[in-house]
Fold this sequence. Notes:
DNA polymerase, domain 1
Amino acid sequence: MAGQQFQYDDSGNTFFYFLTSFVGLIVIPATYYLWPRDQNAEQIRLKSLRRVHGRCLWYRLRLMKSQQSIVPTLKKAALLFGWAVFLLLAYKVSKLEREYQEYNPYEVLNLDPGASLSEIKKQYRILSLKFHPDKGGDEATFMRIAKAYAALTNEQSRQNWLIHGNPDGPGATSFGIALPAWIVDQKNSMLVLLVYGLAFMVILPVVVGTWWYRSIRYSGDQILINTTQLFMHFMYKTPNMNMKRLAMVLTAAFEFDPRSNKEATIRPTDNIEVPQLIRELGNINVKKKEPPFCYPYSLKARVLVLAHLARMDVSEELEEDQRFVVRKSPALLQEMINVGCQLTMMANSRGGFHAPRLVTIENCMKLTQMIVQGLQESKSPLLQLPHFEEEHLRYCISKKYKVRTLQDLVSLKDSDRRSMLRFLGEEKYDEVMAVLGSFPHITMDTKLQVLDDEDSNNITAGSIVTVTVTLTRKRMADMFEKEQESTPCLGEEAAATEDAQGDTSKTKTKVWQNKSKGAKKTAKSKKKKLTKKKATPAPAKTKQANGNVAGNEVVAATSTAAAKEEEDEASDKGSESDEGEANKDSPSERDEDSDKQSDTEVDEMAGDDEEEWEALQQSIQRRERALLETKSKVTHPVYSLYFPEEKQEWWWLYIADRRDQTLVSMPYHVCTLKDTEEVELKFPAPSKTGNYQYSVILRSDSYLGLDQIKPLKLEVHEAKAMLDNHPQWDIPDTEEEDEEQEDSDGIEESEDDDEDND
């Protein structure tokens, strides 16, 4: 067996192959992912948003950053340098001589392959006279010539060359290591050992330790664990939290403490500027001695947030800190909502403590809207529009126009709107209309059912109810000067509840509320179907239409029960009349009628089964697509005059019992609504039968005055009684009788045998 030899590359040529491959593996993927090719696309995008969002703070900051940033230039320079190194190494490798070539004795003797023996001898004689050492030739060259001659003339050498590629037979296998020999040289051993120790015993542990220490301090949403624990403590301590208390808890987050977050800063000038802002703001609970509300970082963050909501001017140094605090606040408020939901779930499952009230969670959502728009709670939503000031609101709320909300402004005729906003001028008016037209208008359709049940419309005690909510987003510009029926907003909740219980057909409502007339049409169609099917005794299952929306009563369970009662009565009457007619007919006619009736029953039942099967398959496919699809959270940029960062339109969707101030389903954060989104809200039905009044609520996390509410009526029936014994485990009576009969037969046979023996 041939031996093995390991050798380092003394000349360093092999190392260039390794280095070229290593640099290529870094440069090529880095160019694909890091090359700033979106710089021009970002400029184009900002240019397209300029007409609507040109006055927004985040737009001006983004535009300034894109123009002044040198990061794309540095990225390009680094990548170009990497490519230069890669091409230089590739050129170096291409110029290296091949050290390992296939041995060919014909090339050594300068002969063509297949030369005759006489030609080989003749050429060998000529080369020997020329390169023999006695004649003054090179000894190494002569040895190569002699070896090639032997490979072509000696039979054993020729076989070794053909089989092993070497006339001398198999040699030792050589493995080259792509490292220069000086690395393993004894003179450089201390230097190499020092580099290895520094890399693997100092740098690598420090990097891994830093990453691990940072990862254990933050949650999955990049919120400090200590901040989450702080929120949980105060939400447990104060279940019913007003807006002032909520702002104090928010600004006590450890993200604003320089000891926990290096991005937060405490400046020497804070001792002068912060007290001045406190005097301008008024009562903000400065004398509160409860920690951490009394700490300097918490007080500073609270003052900056309240100054932002009041749209007060601050100094340049404080403005930078204010932008940092405001930028962090929406994510912190979302964490507070998550904590409130966790406490609610714990209270529902375990009990023993008070869960946060619904008003606390909703105040978190309202405060998010206020911070994004830079508005106090008592201010008009019209101040979200450009060029609107406090003194201008008196024109809007006058007796002639009575415009208090964005929806009121949308519903005006263009002539009245121009007349009311004549103080703006033509150019400013066009800008206001462009901004208002970009605001979202959401229509919300609900469908209530119990999935994976035989009767999906029959809600029983303890069953899992699924409310499928279909959200459709349009622009306010599509709704100008249109009128149709409405969905009540949260500000009109009491009136909406009364309208839902009473007659709503006479009230003429506005476009943004978008109440459809699907409920009345559905009820009429159900009545028609029932009257048509009275002659057939087969039960027909009523299904809820896809167009059920707010304002119409959710009558899934009610309609099912009523339909069953009417069908039972119809079947009884029909059966009596059929019997009377059957007595008059002949037996053959009765048989034909019964066959036709059974055929229609089978067809109807098969049709119902097919519809249920198709609905179930569609539901399963929809769930699978939702699990497989990873949608982008980039929806539509929010128009915000005072928020320092680009914000996307997101929404909260949940079901609540507003009478008891409790959550029925946990808030679902809708972050992918571009045009249409379908959301399933699940909750367990109450354990007691009866009628329940819930509300499906949609809240924006970016805009004031665009929240929606829809009443949701739930009629809970008793659950079906479960059989004590499952049929498949019951032993049929016939089998028991057969066994007893066999035993008795056996006894009789034995008695007969005894008698015969006697």
